[in-house]
Design goal:
Oligomer: single chain
Helix content: 40-55%
Number of helices: 5
Order of helices and strands: EHHEEHHH
Structural class: mainly alpha
Number of strands: 3
Radius of gyration: 18 Å
Distance between the termini: 69 Å
Length: 125
């Protein structure tokens, strides 16, 4: 008899628990914004039996981060690329720790609260 995978609980960041409306409400965006991210490849929501999009907490965190970068003036393609790279770096650091490795000072993959382009050096050039 095959073993069943461990059931996912409500704290599982990858559990597609949120409808589009609820997801948009939670992160303060419109459903149209979430749909627009589908085309970028950043998030691919699962679908319910009825075909409705279902988002995970992790996907909402990524979408929220993109929204912050857009509000700071980044283009959508740049914001998606930044968030993708931040997410991959965080995953790599989790893997290093899972394998017993350690990260040194300054190597933490935590996402900064704000990301700003440095415009002062351009103005002084």
């Amino acid at each position: 008899m095959p073993s069943n995978p461990e059931p996912r609980n409500s704290y599982d960041a990858d559990l597609p628990a949120y409808t589009m409306g609820r997801a948009a409400e939670l992160i303060g965006v419109t459903p149209a914004f979430l749909r627009s991210l589908d085309g970028t490849g950043l998030i691919e929501p699962e679908r319910s039996a009825g075909g409705h999009r279902r988002y995970s907490r992790h996907q909402l965190d990524l979408a929220g981060r993109v929204r912050i970068l857009l509000d700071q003036g980044f283009l959508l393609a740049a914001a998606v690329r930044i968030v993708t790279l931040e997410d991959r770096l965080a995953a790599a650091h989790r893997r290093i720790r899972a394998l017993g490795g350690k990260l040194g000072p300054g190597e933490d993959a935590s996402i900064p609260i704000q990301t700003r382009r440095d415009t002062t050096t351009r103005q002084n050039m």
